[in-house]
Design brief:
With about 210 residues, the protein is α+β, with helices and mostly antiparallel strands. It contains 8 helices and 7 strands.
């Protein structure tokens, strides 16, 4: 995905975005379920998001509304060619680093076990059912909770603009039921719900090719 209106994030921007993600997801249903202990969650989230962003800067497009970075958009363009070896090595490294952080911060292995049981909430394998490679997948859409929520619309409208111009489907997931009406407002429909091992639902949404 390319954008002339959003700010393309650089590697040197990642530390600021790690803090933004921690702020946005500190009370997210997914992370509260996987890391129920608040103090452990506060220690782990910075490392987990650092690992995520290090992977995404190599494999995805990362944008913000401006250089001030009060919001974050991470998009994977499934229609673009990619190097499978680079992709899988990057993904494997990220997985190993994540497990390392989980073991270091919680030697009881309870958190590691939660993450192992919650793998289906942490990936987007449900999109295999779409059988559609002409697609954008939104991995993160986050806005500083202290900022005006119009930033979410700016990011989403840019994704939709690009998808319409290139005749692409858009897919995403959320673990917060309060987010579903917002995405429906942008033309998404509920494709399905994932619920495994936890009292937690992953809402899988798509916006058809226009």
């Amino acid at each position: 995905m390319e954008s002339q209106t959003l700010y393309r994030v650089k590697k040197e921007d990642l530390p600021k975005l790690e803090k933004l993600l921690v702020k946005c997801f500190a009370h997210d249903p997914l992370y509260c379920k996987l890391i129920p202990e608040k103090e452990t969650r506060e220690r782990l989230l910075p490392e987990l998001f650092k690992c995520d962003l290090t992977e995404f800067i190599e494999t995805c497009e990362i944008y913000s509304d401006s250089e001030e970075m009060n919001s974050l958009l991470v998009v994977s363009d499934e229609s673009e060619p990619y190097n499978p070896l680079t992709f899988y090595l990057t993904e494997a490294w990220a997985s190993l680093k994540t497990d390392e952080y989980l073991i270091k911060e919680d030697p009881s292995l309870k958190t590691l076990w939660n993450f192992m049981r919650g793998r289906d909430y942490l990936n987007s394998r449900w999109t295999d059912q779409l059988h559609q490679e002409e697609r954008l997948h939104v991995i993160y859409l986050a806005v500083d909770p202290d900022m005006h929520h119009g930033l979410a619309a700016i990011l989403m409208e840019e994704v939709i603009r690009y998808a319409q111009e290139h005749h692409l489907m858009i897919s995403l997931e959320t673990h917060n039921p309060d987010n579903v009406p917002m995405y429906e407002h942008f033309g998404f429909k509920l494709f399905g719900i994932v619920q495994k091992h936890f009292d937690l639902k992953q809402y899988c949404l798509i916006r058809e090719i226009q």
